[in-house]
Design a protein that fits this description.
mainly alpha; 6 helices
Length: about 110
């Protein structure tokens, strides 16, 4: 079935929509999957061209952690994952300041005995 768009594209040998109108159409449709794919494609293209991430991963993490919708349970789960990742990458356990001080106190007490 021929549409007006396909007739125009065949006659003028170019697409009827440019990149800007295509992006606007995707956003206007409100299809979450298409918008996520567009977001990902833009991010990958930016990284290829400029050899850096479009958004700072640290800024993204801080924004996620300061989100008031993030529950204490989810926050703790993320912290556990980060601790596991730290241990895998650096071959040592991650100690928060409290754990570090507790370990130091235990070591000092053990040395006195």
């Amino acid at each position: 079935m021929l549409t007006l768009e396909s007739i125009y594209e065949k006659k003028h040998e170019k697409p009827i929509r440019g990149i800007s109108s295509t992006v606007a159409l995707i956003l206007a449709e409100g299809d979450a999957e298409k918008i996520q794919k567009l977001h990902s494609a833009i991010g990958h293209s930016y990284e290829r061209q400029f050899n850096k991430k479009i958004n700072s991963p640290t800024d993204n993490m801080i924004e996620a952690f300061t989100d008031e919708n993030l529950s204490k349970t989810e926050f703790n789960r993320l912290m556990e994952h980060f601790s596991d990742i730290y241990q895998q990458r650096f071959n040592e356990r991650y100690f928060g300041e409290g754990n570090f001080l507790l370990t130091k106190i235990q070591t000092l007490l053990a040395d006195k005995e």
